[in-house]
Design a protein that fits this description.
By secondary structure, the chain is α+β, with helices and mostly antiparallel strands. The protein is 29% helix and 38% strand. It has a 6-stranded antiparallel barrel. Strands 4-11-9-6 form a 4-stranded antiparallel sheet, with no helix packed on it. A 4-stranded antiparallel sheet has the order 8-7-5-10. The longest helix is centred in the N-terminal third of the chain and has 33 residues. The chain is elongated. 21% of the residues are buried.
Length: 366
């Protein structure tokens, strides 16, 4: 038994030496190729390839969705927008009767009246101190009191603005002194109403959510990538939506693994607005690697492997040239390879296993 093992080991060693001596050329005639059933095809340039398929969810980027709430408690008397409506910035979405708004308006008018009265004392003492009639201390007290009234009026004006009144409406209130408890809820941006959570006749509390308005000019895809595949993905890779012409570009990559499904979330920005996708939708996608250096697409059957290295058989005048390659990806029945090619080579796409056997001295061309 020991002698047989030694003989077999010697054979393997001699075979390895024989292969090393053969070099990278395999001489075969056309008749031999026909007998072996070898088929040829021109190598094909590849511009991209699919890294993996993964589910994704269509979402809005941060900052493109706004929650519209009521700044005052009150009764909803009118609704001017429904889900799906396109609205302009500042457009009135709903109207609310608010006792608190009336109270704030009264306080503001009182503050303006107090300010006006104090302005008379301010102007009087300013002149008197300039003439040396009154002491500097009295002027400082008058000035300080006047500034207090100014601050109070400005504060109440800002509260009215926060409540939903425009600067024009506040100025009109100051001129006419006509109070109105009607609070106008306005759109914070130009966009689309994504949700409405209030009905006419409903009593609402302060800060109650009423609408969601979103800017839909930009959409993102949240793609769940198996954590063991994340190293094969880079920023700038493309994401294609199945059965659609929509494409997106990866702009963010998560750093943590979801404990429930062992995936890492990758975010891709949709390149252009498209009616085929909507926020909240779950879709199937392909992550595509765009190749920036020359690479080629060949059938898997054209690739031979030996001692952890990959090769293809390139047709030449005397038979085949064994060309070493690097396999950078696979998609279905095809491999994406890199190597020293001009792009015009014809390679063996059928019968590569037989050619490998002859190259290694394990077969006969007859």
């Amino acid at each position: 038994m020991k002698k047989i093992a030694q003989t077999f080991a010697g054979f393997i060693l001699l075979m390895g030496l024989a292969v090393a001596d053969m070099g990278n050329n395999l001489q075969l005639s056309q008749e031999q190729l026909d007998n072996l059933g070898v088929s040829l095809s021109k190598i094909e340039l590849a511009k991209s390839f699919t890294i993996l398929n993964a589910p994704a969810k269509v979402v809005l980027p941060a900052g493109n969705e706004y929650s519209v709430s009521s700044s005052q408690a009150g009764l909803v008397v009118k609704i001017n927008a429904s889900m799906g409506d396109t609205v302009k910035k500042g457009q009135v979405l709903a109207q609310i009767n608010s006792p608190e708004l009336l109270a704030n308006q009264r306080l503001y008018l009182k503050a303006l009246n107090d300010l006006q009265l104090n302005l008379l004392a301010y102007d009087r003492d300013k002149q008197l101190v300039a003439e040396g009639v009154i002491a500097e201390r009295r002027w400082q007290e008058t000035s300080s009191q006047y500034n207090t009234f100014v601050y109070e009026a400005n504060e109440l004006k800002q509260l009215l603005e926060i409540s939903g009144m425009t600067v024009g409406e506040i100025d009109q209130l100051a001129k006419t002194h006509q109070l109105s408890g009607q609070l106008n809820v306005r759109a914070p941006i130009s966009g689309v109403v994504m949700d409405r959570s209030v009905l006419v006749g409903e009593r609402i509390d302060i800060q109650a959510p009423l609408f969601k308005v979103a800017l839909l000019d930009e959409l993102w895809l949240e793609v769940n990538v198996p954590h063991e595949r994340i190293d094969s993905i880079k920023l700038g890779d493309l994401v294609l939506i199945d059965n659609s012409s929509v494409s997106a570009e990866i702009i963010l990559m998560g750093q943590s693994v979801n404990a429930d499904n062992q995936t890492i979330q990758v975010k891709a920005k949709v390149r252009e607005k498209h009616p085929d996708i909507r926020t909240g939708e779950t879709i199937n996608t392909q992550i595509i690697k765009v190749l920036k250096t020359p690479a080629y697409k060949v059938p898997n059957t054209a690739v031979a492997q030996y001692e952890g290295k990959f090769f293809v058989f390139v047709r030449n005048s005397s038979g085949f040239l064994i060309r070493p390659i690097t396999v950078i990806g696979k998609q279905g029945d095809e491999s994406i390879i890199k190597g020293d090619f001009s792009g015009e080579e014809a390679i063996a796409i059928k019968g590569a296993v037989v050619l490998k056997a002859h190259w290694l001295g394990l077969g006969s061309a007859e």
